[in-house]
Amino acid sequence: MRSAFDKLISGAGLALAVTLLAAGGLLTWGHYFVAGQVHDQLVMQDITMPAGEALAGLPAADAKILQQYAGSKLDSGPEARAYADHYILIHMNEMADGQTYSQVSGQFVSMTDEQKASAEGQALGGLRQSLFMGDTLRGLLLYGYAFATIGTIAGIAALVSFGAAAVLLLLVGLGFRHSRRTEATEGRFVGGRVPVPA
Question: Is residue 7 part of a domain?
Answer without folding.
Answer: yes
